[in-house]
Design goal:
Layout: E1 2-7, H1 11-21, H2 24-32, E2 38-39, H3 40-47, H4 51-63, E3 67-71, E4 80-84, E5 86-92, E6 99-108, E7 115-125, E8 150-163, E9 171-182, E10 194-200, E11 203-210, E12 235-242, E13 245-248, E14 251-254, E15 268-275, E16 285-288, E17 299-308
Helix pairs in contact: 1-4, 3-4
Length: about 300
């Protein structure tokens, strides 16, 4: 979809945009079509208003270039579906109009790791069950591991590729990595500490102190086969690398900047998650996928770019 950039000189567009968004009904239409397209009749039913009123509001939204009407091939006649024409509108008040900022979201499945060097006890599970043998690294080579939803080990490291989708001439301004993790011990212990260290391309970023292996309740997405006395959920951890350094959950945790990583021109970077042999707390790790734990996600990566236009 199109991304529009307006300045204070775009009087006609700004007036149409302001008019289109000034109505609660029109804002409701926009909220509805975020998820899927609607016909005029479907919008009228959802909003409980006459179809002629819907047509009036849709006309104003179309004139503002916010939505479009597409013929419905499965219907006879002139019925059309209403969907977004424009993904976003940026209004610039200063001379920064020559800068375009955008983000790409990459979802990394737990089973997509490319290498590992871990020490048991360890486990790898899908949402259907444990991949056997338990506590044996051979399970990490099984083809079913591509469906992994929970990975745990005592110490060592595991590596995930992150595609960068080179956006030349855009410059990568920041990387934010989000994952659900906790410590790992026999059964569970809410006070079991572990130092978990993150790397990109062998550059050490920062270390997160996990305060426990949490199992005092069922995880919101933990499947029914998983025992009540085992790790159930983790904490959502966000690692951000930008021009100011490396941050964990908003707190500065390292001095490595995005420029230090020298990612310009690269199409992939390698995320390494490790529990080091010489860590103060060698307390293992659990990494949760979207069908385990409290958060419906795998490893999510947000790549923020900036380019001159």
């Amino acid at each position: 979809m199109r991304r529009d950039r307006l300045t204070l000189d775009d009087d006609e567009r700004l007036e149409k945009l302001g008019d289109s968004l000034s109505s609660l009904t029109r804002r409701k239409i926009l909220r509805l079509i975020v998820e899927k397209s609607y016909s005029l009749l479907e919008l009228a039913r959802e909003l409980d208003i006459p179809m002629s009123t819907v047509a009036f509001h849709v006309k104003i939204l179309r004139e503002a270039n916010l939505i479009k009407a597409i013929p419905n091939p499965s219907k006879r006649g002139n019925e059309k579906n209403i969907s977004f024409e424009c993904e976003s509108v940026s209004i610039f008040f200063t001379d920064s109009t020559n800068v375009d900022r955008f983000t790409n979201i990459v979802k990394i499945p737990l089973g997509s790791f490319t290498s590992f060097n871990i020490t048991p006890p360890c486990a790898i599970c899908t949402k259907e069950g444990i991949i056997h043998p338990l506590d044996d690294i051979s399970a990490f080579y099984h083809p079913i591991r591509l469906k992994a939803q929970l990975i745990s080990f005592y110490k060592g490291r595991i590596v995930f590729p992150i595609p960068l989708e080179n956006q030349s001439p855009a410059k990568l301004e920041s990387i934010t990595i989000s994952m659900e993790i906790c410590s790992e011990c026999p059964n569970y212990n809410n006070s079991w500490r572990s130092n978990i260290t993150f790397y990109l391309d062998d550059t050490e970023l920062a270390t997160y102190l996990s305060l426990g292996d949490y199992g005092d309740r069922r995880g919101l997405y933990t499947p029914s086969f998983w025992g009540n006395n085992s790790s159930q959920y983790g904490m959502l951890v966000n690692i951000r690398i930008d021009n100011a350094g490396t941050f964990i959950n908003g707190e500065k945790a390292g001095t490595t900047t995005i420029s230090d990583l020298r990612l310009d021109g690269k199409f992939v970077t390698l995320l390494k998650i490790a529990v080091k042999d010489d860590a103060k707390y060698v307390g293992g790790i659990n990494i949760f996928g979207k069908d385990f734990g409290d958060y419906n996600q795998d490893i999510n990566v947000q790549l923020a770019y900036e380019r001159t236009i």
